[in-house]
Amino acid sequence: MKLWGGRFSKETASSVDEFNASIDFDQKLYKQDIQGSIAHAKMLAKQGILSATEAELIIENLDAIHKEIEAGKVEFKIEFEDIHMNIEKLLIDRIGDTGKKLHTARSRNDQVAVDIRLYVKESITEITNLLKKMQKTIISIAEGHMDTILPGYTHLQRAQPVTFAYHIMAYFQMFSRDIERLDDCYKRTDSLPLGSGALAGTTYNTDREFLAKELGFSVICNNAMDAVSDRDFIIEFISDASTIMMHLSRFCEELILWSSSEFDFIEMDDAYSTGSSIMPQKKNPDLAELIRGKTGRIYGNLINILTIMKSLPMAYNKDMQEDKPPLFDTVETLKSSLYVFNEMIQTMKIKKDNMNHAAKTGFLNATDAADYLVEKGIPFRECHSIIGRLVLYCVENNHSIESLSLDKLKMFSDKFEDDIFEKIDIKNCIESKKSSGSTSKKSVTIMIENAKRKLNI
After folding, report:
1. What is the predicted pLDDT for the residue at 20?
2. What was the pLDDT predicted at 5?
């Protein structure tokens, strides 16, 4: 008979057991479930609801069950529905009636809520560490390419010259915001629901502050009904994960483009590439493509949990059992993506000469030529028009701006002098940037110093 079966006159159908059970996926929470049960047993003993001997027996056997699960000696059973009932049944089978006392002053509703919060907190810590590890890789790459120049793009059209260090440090900023969002999510996850009961609290003289301290929560949930029905923290976490994956996907898109023959800016290491089953010359950036593809998978998980929660009345509803598959999938997909992405960029070859060569075409110095005329006293909009006509002339006659003679340049403005050639030199176009956060070496050096300070390196 089910542990909750006293009110029922017959067993549930086997098809119902299969459809209703969550043990296939929520067994992942065994560690958190046992952790919460041990804290609960300690609290019950502290409050005199259990004797010290009973609590000691429960805790000792929960520890033993934990070790047996870790050793692969436990087979969870579908008839006990979920991880909570499976562990409780294992405990009762070992110590009898004393095991039945563990569920005093709690419900599966607050039990699953605390398990998931513990899991999300641990996952946020792991993912944050992976992000910081990747940021360290970005800093290392940037430091090695302070003088590597490539085209900066808007609309995927060559726009202005930048350094590769500057370009890649833009992603450092993205991932910094991701860490900040995860930190905010952690704060809202770090609230203890255990002790709320099914939805209305309990008649027992419990100590939820003790539970919070035992389980490492900073505060307790203030409303029992909200505590057991709240999944906002899961929604927020998957939303944050979606943003991280979006940033990874954007980075991957550039790596994919840069590794093509048309760009030829980078080459993926053989260990992080794949080949074609029919075309022997191919070397495909499949890992970057797969991370880009998995972004949609995590977006789907976000829509999944939002749809589950969108019309649920208070308090707990069985629909909420479905919160775990999208959560677990998001955590595992994100962690694996971050791990392999970091290895991929650590090993990629950066083709400095090809980047530098590309920066010399496409009129990347046109804005600097306009700024030169501004310095000569011409209004910017007029300068913009002058340089636009100059670029059109160069396009039609297959020239670059710097290849024109001074006499040719003066056909467009008599303000041009010999110093224009220094002004529009590609390296000077970069180093002349004075604004904070620009692509100049001085500015990028400050970025890297600030980044190292943020990571304590």
Report:
1. 74
2. 66
pLDDT (tens digit per residue) in 37-46: 999 999 999 9
Considering the domain boundaries, does residue 83 fall inside one?
yes
Mean pLDDT to the nearest integer, 411-437: 95
- Which residues, 6+ apart, have CB-to-CB distance to 382 below 8 Å? 373
Domain boundaries, position 445 = 360-455
Residue 121 contacts residue 189 (beta carbons within 8 Å): yes
Checking if the pLDDT of 4 tops 70, the result is no
* Opening angle at CA 74, ends 70 and 78, nearest 5: 125
- Beta bridge partners of residue 219, listed in sequence order: 191
Rounded CA-CA distance 11/33 in Å is 26
Same domain, 271 and 322: yes
Give the integer Cα–Cα distance in Å for 76 and 238: 28
Tokens of 18: 């299969």
Q: Tell me the average pLDDT across 376-399.
A: 96
Q: Any idea which residues carry the catalytic annotation?
A: 155, 276
Pairing between strand 191-192 and 219-220?
A: parallel
Give SS3 for 452: helix
- Amino acid residing at 304: N
Total of domains in the chain: 3
Give CA–CA dist 73/193, Å, rounded.
Answer: 31
Q: What are phi and psi of 433, to 5 degrees?
A: -70, 125
Residue 101 is which amino acid? Answer: K
145 domain-assigned: no
